[in-house]
Amino acid sequence: MQQDKRITLAWTGASGAPYGLRLLECLLAADYQVYLLISSAARVVLATEHGLKLPAGPEAAQAALAEHLHYQGDKLVVCGKEDWFSPVASGSAAPKKMVVCPCSAGTLASVAHGMSDNLLERAADVVLKERGQLLMVVRETPFSSLHLENMLKLSNLGATIMPAAPGFYHQPTSIEDLVDFMVARILDHLGVEQGLVPRWGYDHRT
Ligand SMILES: Cc1cc2nc3c(=O)[nH]c(=O)nc-3n(C[C@H](O)[C@H](O)[C@H](O)COP(=O)(O)O)c2cc1C
């Protein structure tokens, strides 16, 4: 059977916009069709952390992102917050994999409680009900008991909680190295081939 190379990627208003951008870049490079959902707060964080100001409409944002990433393919689809006719809004058409990266405490709570109040929350709800793969790359510190409860609730429902917490054992020398560490772990979980960082154990033996 042919591999379903479609994925839903959501950017929310947690710190860590570079993770989301790099993940998008890698998924497009791996020839995935990416349905990208961007919360209002994510736009603010993207401008603050990366200096990238996206235009408001989904089509204009899609064009701006393609230009920023020098992407000339046709696999990037930016969806609007209330684009209820998007494939990601229905279990009959949605990709079976979704990553929320970075994931804010707010979106974590909304998804944990099935709010489905915008397309991003609805898409996550769909992946959960269809028993697909949902990765939540949560970023907050410290975590309150509420955050921890919401993470446990989602984990018990089958979602994978991946705190945005890069390791240092690959001896990073740049921010890009730290970003790639996280993105590599996410791609591994998604089953997308990557060679961003050396694998544990492989470069220590001769
Ligand atoms: C620059 C910036 C950084 C933020 N960092 C975080 C963060 O790391 N974690 C978090 O949960 N919220 C963070 N917030 C707050 C969220 O953006 C805010 O709670 C927002 O309502 C989340 O909405 P969303 O989940 O729809 O994106 C940050 C906000 C800004 C402007």
TrEMBL record:
FMN binds at residues 13-15, 39, 104-107, 139. Signal peptide: none annotated. It catalyses: dimethylallyl phosphate + FMNH2 = prenylated FMNH2 + phosphate. It comes from Photobacterium galatheae. Keywords: Flavoprotein, FMN, Prenyltransferase, Transferase. Belongs to the UbiX/PAD1 family. This is Flavin prenyltransferase UbiX. NCBIfam families: PRK06029.1 (NF004685), ubiX_pad (TIGR00421). InterPro entries: Flavin_trans-like, Flavoprotein, UbiX-like.
